[in-house]
TrEMBL record:
Listed InterPro entries: Cell_wall_metabolism_enzyme, Dup_hybrid_motif, M23ase_b-sheet_dom
CDD domains registered for this protein in UniProt: M23_peptidase
Annotated signal sequence range: none
Alphabetized UniProt keyword annotations: Membrane, Transmembrane, Transmembrane helix
PANTHER family: LIPOPROTEIN NLPD (PTHR21666:SF286), PEPTIDASE-RELATED (PTHR21666)
TM annotation in the entry: 21-47
Protein name per Swiss-Prot or TrEMBL: M23 family metallopeptidase
Length: 288
């Protein structure tokens, strides 16, 4: 049979008196239970304290990250605002250039957007993204418009370089464009160019940029150079004493291409100069 009581003898050091404690079994069990509960409570409190400290540390990190992201959003919003202002200026300049160049409004042009700077909060991030998308679309519209304007200006520059301008040689006009009495037959005949008299060997210059399409001796014309300038324009330089360019060679306005002579059907040294548009002779005086 299990003991119901326990006796504990307590003998203080240096004393002969003995103290006896009688503990019942249920008392020991109660004390043990209390100790277990206290240990468990202490362990739980310790764990909660550690977890709370970790939560506070994570909260501090989150607050710091939140602050940093908020600053980044502020900076992004400011940059977006500045970019929108620049786009407004670009749109105004684009419109001015189009008016000067007589170009129509770009097909994909979008209306200008603006307004005061707004501070985005966490709930406005999607709105900020929408504004960024709008700016991207505006930038793309400006890019397409600039490409169109650049293409137009390049065409204008090319057309200007291809249109004949200036005198092909230094001299004086000995025969103009139009109907005249032929110096050989005496009959009325169309003179499709202009004769510029000069000394033999006087330099002959191209009056526009282009590619040499002919450099040969032709009956009537004598030594002939023909330059194709594009856009339907061609120029003829005839009766030369010497041709200085070859077929396929690219020449520029003012470049020396031949020398004045009297080859072919000619009564004296001069350059017969023609300007043709789509193979129709035009009065060269209108291009001097």
């Amino acid at each position: 049979m299990a003991a119901r009581k326990f006796t504990v003898l307590v003998i203080p050091e240096g004393s002969h008196q003995v103290r006896r404690l009688v503990l019942r079994l249920w008392t020991l069990r109660l004390v043990a239970a209390v100790l277990v509960v206290l240990c468990g409570a202490l362990g739980y409190l310790s764990w909660e304290l550690m977890r709370t400290r970790v939560d506070y540390a994570e909260l501090a990190q989150l607050r710091q990250a939140n602050f940093a992201q908020d600053r980044e959003l502020q900076v992004l919003a400011q940059r977006l605002h500045d970019l929108r202002q620049e786009l407004v200026v670009l749109a105004q300049n684009d419109a001015k250039v189009r008016v000067m160049a007589k170009l129509t409004k770009p097909r994909n042009d979008s209306p200008g957007v603006g307004g005061p700077l707004e501070s985005p909060g966490w709930g406005e991030v999607s709105d900020l993204q929408r504004q960024i998308d709008q700016v991207r679309a505006a930038i793309e519209a400006r890019r397409l418009s600039q490409e169109e304007i650049q293409g137009f200006l390049n065409d204008q520059r090319s057309f200007s370089a291809a249109k004949p301008s200036g005198w092909p040689a230094r001299g004086w006009v000995s025969s103009g464009f139009g109907m005249r009495n032929s110096p050989f037959s005496g009959r009325r005949k169309m003179h499709e160019g202009m004769d510029i008299a000069a000394r033999t060997g006087t330099p002959i210059h191209a009056t526009a940029d282009g590619i040499v399409s002919r450099s040969e001796t032709v009956a009537g014309y004598g030594k002939l150079v023909v330059i194709d300038h594009g856009y339907g324009y061609q120029t003829y330089y005839a009766h030369n004493s010497r041709n200085l360019v070859r077929v396929g060679e690219r020449v520029q306005r003012g470049q020396k291409i031949a020398e004045v002579g009297s080859t072919g059907s000619s009564t004296g040294p001069h350059v017969h100069y023609e300007v043709r548009l789509n193979n129709v002779p035009l009065n060269p005086r209108n291009f001097l």
